[in-house]
Amino acid sequence: MTFLLDVNVLIALIDPGHVAHDDAHHWFASTGRNAWATCPITENGVVRIVGNPKYPNFPGSPALVMEIVGKLRSLPGHCFWPDDVSLVGSGNVASAKILTSAQVTDTYLLALAKVHGGQLATFDRKLSTAAVTQGNSALHLITAK
């Protein structure tokens, strides 16, 4: 099983001050490290959030954050999934079940994981799987201690 790491999981892995840093590292060491993925949306999300000077543990410019993401990608077990799924016209997505714009990215990442035969790894307990056909099977909730 390959796990697509969502933005919060990636940030928790690279930011020692993140509230879920230890949980992310524990999960990654025990479960995720053998087969894990990123995609343009998750990588760009990390760069956008962590590269913002208002981010609490701002390490520097977006260029520096891109280097950090690049180092993370060089770890064993990583694969890169291109954004090769569309919510529009997808047989895996019931568009009528996307109720708010806030659900779009999560639904997309869940659909991407499903299409690639993996699971979306997240801390987000409120993520709705309703819009993706058999979405529950493509979701992996990481336990926080």
UniProtKB/TrEMBL annotation:
Q: Name one GO molecular function term.
A: DNA binding
Q: Which residues form a coiled coil?
A: none
Task: Give the record's GO biological process terms.
Answer: negative regulation of growth
Superkingdom is Bacteria
CC cofactor:
Mg(2+)
**EC number(s) per entry:** 3.1.-.-
Summarize the protein's role.
Toxic component of a toxin-antitoxin (TA) system. An RNase.
Q: What is this protein called?
A: Ribonuclease VapC
Protein's organism: Sinorhizobium alkalisoli
Q: State the encoding gene.
A: vapC
